[in-house]
Amino acid sequence: MRTDGEATRARILAAARTEFARYGLAGSRVDRIAAEAKASKERLYAYFGDKKALFAAVLALNLQETTDRIPRDALDLPGFVGAMFDHATQNPDHLRMLDWARLENEPGLAPRTPCGRPGPATEDVVRAQEQGIIDSRWDPEDLITLLLSLATAWAQSPETLFTGEPEAKDEFRSRRRNAAIAAACRLLEPKGPGLGK
User: Taking the mean position of all CA atoms in its chain, how far away is CA 41?
Assistant: First the structure.
């Protein structure tokens, strides 16, 4: 059972997540976050110090939630891409927060969490490359970045999401998900098109 303090802190984080995703760090207002969280500004500052620290806490929370939900199996990187696609389309605020963080370009905003980035560990990718499961010509960090980009490309696209009937929307989403996974499979294929060497 949560204490009053834990519950208040959770409400502040939830309100801040909405506010920051909508307005970024510069455009967000602490008074709106406090009012939405039904907490005083003083309580907010007591928990988080300042608005920048609160923004960083929301980024870290988003990253932790993402890594907790995404498989880390280097032997199933297409599954990783599919899971990231699902997460990105179901949690657009997470990507919006990362966009705001890049735009703000403020030191200290990038979360430093023990979970690292979503997806498999670099050493696991190297082992899969050594076993011939993944194209060994890729730098493991570059490969994970490319796969993350494939998984989130549609969510980041300037093209608006399909707004037709639910069945058509599901078909449209499924087609895009399958395209991201198919592209990942092409990248991963040993001695496939890869780096063009």
Answer: 28
How many angstroms separate the CA atoms of 150 and 183, rounded? 8
Helix (H) or strand (E) segment spanning residue 52:
helix 51-69
Q: Which domain holds residue 30?
A: 1-49
Residue matched to tokens 């998984």? 151
Do 26 and 82 have their domain in common? no
CA distance readout (Å), 126 to 18, 83, 146, 174 = 38, 21, 16, 30
> CA dist 140 to 3, 92, 187, Å?
43, 26, 12
Residues 44 and 88 in one domain: no
- CA distances in angstroms from 38 to 19, 20, 167, 194, listed in the order given: 14, 17, 39, 53
Judge if 106 and 171 occupy the same domain. yes
Give the type of residue at 60. A
Per-10-residue mean pLDDT, the chain, length 197: 82 96 94 95 94 93 89 90 93 89 76 63 92 93 92 77 63 91 93 53
Residues found in the chain? 197
Say what the pTM is.
Answer: 0.81
Contact 150, 169 (CB under 8 A): no
pLDDT at position 192, please? 54
